[in-house]
Amino acid sequence: MSEVETVSGKPLWLKVWQFPLVAMAVALALMVATLAGTQQLFTVLPEIENAALDMIVRTVVGVGLVFVVYKLFVTRLGARKKDDLPARGSITDTLLGLLVGAAIFTAVVGVAAIVGAYRILGWGSTQDLLQIVLLTGVVAGFVEEVIIRGIVFRWLEEFGGSLLALAISAALFGFLHIQNDNATVWSSVAIALEAGILLGGAYMLTRNLWLAIGIHAGWNVTQGFVWGVPVSGNPFMGMVESGLYGPDWLSGGAFGLEASVIALVIATGAGIWMVWQARKEGHWISSMWSRK
């Protein structure tokens, strides 16, 4: 075999196939195909008469397919095979994440209430509970973390290091919400900073997805159901009926408290702490050209 056909003892085609950005592109294509296929499957599957059961079944099928494709294919891509959804720690890290996400957003609501930006107006209802838990908790928490942290962050970090991965994945995550109801450029920037850094930090700290999945789900369910705040611009009926008051920079306006400076300070601060802890524990990765 000629020198042109080999690189560092490996065939050139294998070297290209295992290159981080190529592996990332293949993994993203697999996930897009999985999500598109799931949507097509749902159009042909008969609806279950019980609406709640139908929603549960579709959630289990959709999330299950993403899980299976990730386990069977994504974990085998790239030069460094890695499974970010290990069985070990899946329950404890997810439960811890749920508590952390709930605590952070409760702190946001508490500060907003103190400064007069949030008020409880009365009791709400449980009519949206299942939708909030399944769509904003299970689906958003699991699928978005697999794609943004488990694919984008992972291979950007292997290519360009932790800082590049954190910056790009956070920006991508924030601006994926630009099409949401009541979204603005500012709300997307806010989510990029507060949630992008927080969830990226959780992934860096544990080197798996379970903590980030738990934080994501706990954050969404707590703000939507417990405190009755719009979830990334999407209004739901929560346990309480609430109102947001004051200038948009303080209350988040129609988008919700995620677009407030309160969430920006509290959640970003928590995220920076996680990144700092990850770096202290030796989980900071330099770019591939620096490693060479």
UniProtKB/TrEMBL annotation:
The keyword Amino-acid biosynthesis does not apply. The chain crosses the membrane at residues 12-35, 55-74, 95-117, 129-147, 159-178, 184-202, 209-229, 249-276. Residues 129-221 form the CAAX prenyl protease 2/Lysostaphin resistance protein A-like domain. InterPro entries: Rce1/LyrA-like_dom. It comes from Pontixanthobacter aquaemixtae. The keyword Hydrolase applies. Keywords: Hydrolase, Membrane, Metalloprotease, Protease, Transmembrane, Transmembrane helix. This is CPBP family intramembrane metalloprotease. Pfam families: Rce1-like (PF02517). GO terms for molecular function: endopeptidase activity; metallopeptidase activity. GO terms for biological process: CAAX-box protein maturation; proteolysis.
